[in-house]
Amino acid sequence: MQKFIVPQFIDVESKIFGPITTRQFLIGLVGLMFGFVSYKLSDFSLFIVEAVIIGIATVAFAFIKVNGAPFHIFMLNYIKTMKSAKVRIWKRQAFVKQTQKETEENINDNKPVSARRQMSASRLSELSLIIDTGGAYQGEDVLRDNLDNEPINIDKELE
What we know:
Blueprint: E1 15-17, E2 20-21, H1 22-41, H2 44-63, E3 65-66, E4 69-70, H3 71-83, H4 92-108, H5 113-116, H6 121-132, H7 140-149, H8 154-158
Antiparallel strand pairs: 1-2, 3-4
């Protein structure tokens, strides 16, 4: 029998400079690059404001994790959520038309009547109760059969 090595800790990023991972290092380089461009293109007071904003964004994207996921994944999910519809409406008419088509197709099939038969709500709730009680409750049909087969003598029970 062959033995295989199963990789472990596959979600841990490899470290390149002490505790800094490759992803964090690259994000830091991009942040420094943006800082350099803002230093060259703006005066010193505007550069200070831009540097603070760029520094906060760089630290957030490099080091912060939200629910165990990197911050950039969180931001992508947030943007996707904000762009999606806020209210979802169920269009019942389309559902009813589709259900009617399926019913007509089932009737036109050559299936036996028992395969197409719908169960009543009371029978379904009774089956659910039988399953939930683990068979302790036998159902109305079984109780009626037992009553028909074994009549109960009340006088004998009281003695």
